[in-house]
Amino acid sequence: MGRSKSTLQREKLEVDSGFDRQVSEGDGRTKRRECETQASVSPSLSTEQVMPVLIIGWSVYDKLPDEEQKEFALVERYRTDYFYECYEYENAKGNKNYEWSDRCFNSQEELLDFFGYEMIEDLNADAVYARRVETFTDEEEKKWMKLSDAGNQIKVMGAT
Length: 160
What we know:
alpha+beta, four-stranded antiparallel β-sheet, 5 helices, 30% strand
């Protein structure tokens, strides 16, 4: 199995997750499994040295040719029950003001906007894929927007 790196910049840290596949938990849920590499966190490089990350949703990914799909790594699959579990866990700890976020999205609302949904119940194993890009020009943005549904499921992180 090839080693997949999906490195996203967030809060001035560069995270090399080393995760490259989703594994069934047997009860309909999936869980990330670490493959070949250890997760590591290192200080972020300067903005000039960090390449932007293109994040796309499943509907854009499905429209890509097979060869181009191979350039992307599966980052996460989002399910409604995952959010319920997160909120239940935080509530049980006494954190009544919990605001969900992860390495791709700063809030639940941003995630829903990305997929074009209005309610968290609309999520059904919706996948997010990512790859590094050297640059992200206006022309490239137009190309990707043509593949998107109503201008969503495209996001670039770390672009200057």
